[in-house]
Amino acid sequence: MKKTIAKILFPLASFVLLFCLVFSAVQLVVADDSFLETQHKKLGTNVEMGMSVGDLAKSTKVLLDYMRGRADSIYVEVTVQGEVMEMFVLPIEVIHMAEVQQVWSFFVVARNFGLLFALALYAIAAMLYGEDPLTGWSRGYLYALGAFGLLAAFFVLWASGSFSAFWLEFHKVIFPGSENWMLPYESRMVQMLTEQFFANVIIRIVLVALAGIGALLLFAVGTLLIARWKRARYEAIAEPSGWISEPEPEGPDLIIAHRLRNVSIRQRQQIEREVAEEARIREEMETFGDTVQVFAPEDKTPEEE
User: Fold this and answer.
1) How far apart are CA 294 and CA 284, in angstroms?
2) Residues 51, 57, 62, 64: what is their CA dihedral angle, to the nearest 10 degrees?
3) Residue 86 pLDDT greater than 50, yes or no
4) How far is 93 from 183, CA to CA, in rounded Å?
5) CB count, 10 Å around CB of 138?
């Protein structure tokens, strides 16, 4: 019963861990200023907006710093067509970023609690599983990864089919009851953070997440392969080929077979030597018994009587 509960807790904890890994990948990507600047340059966004790549990258960094609570506002000055001005001038942009900051803070807290929750489940599962909990974790991780992969495949197919529809529903889910994310086209926030920009960022997030998930996958598969090799080696030691294939129901052979189980190679070799010595002694005694002549009284000659 305890092992059954552990087999449920391991996949559950792993499923939570996978979500935590994905959000951690998001954090890593949005913290990569050089990658974001490269995307602006590749898409030619700065040319369309009439400003330098440096100003565009600076504006993006201000938004991300504000989202992560590292800036008090989204105020930043840029040079547009040779004129210095404030980058984000629409009130709805400020309101929207305040909501983005709240959502980001929620996900950070949820990720941290998720990690603690997963670790607690792992600890409980390991105690219930008993011997070799790493094997139980590995199987649980593979089960969770299979379910997570199906869920991820659904979203990937959806986004690849119609990213606009996916992006629209995504905003409806993370900003329930609010339409402040529906910024007008004249918003510089919309002009600099295009759908293609977000699509490229999401692809980068997926690749980073796959690196972490794949590392755990290799560890899980390696653990199971090692456990399988150990089990095969144990079975080879416990029942050596060429030794007692069909032990007798009673007698020394059954005792020998029992002694050979669950012992080290050195102990098994010692037992085999002892058994060989006992067999040699028995054989000599049997041979000696065959050479002894037993004379009955009726076989005696008259002279001997």
Assistant:
1) 18
2) 140
3) yes
4) 7
5) 24
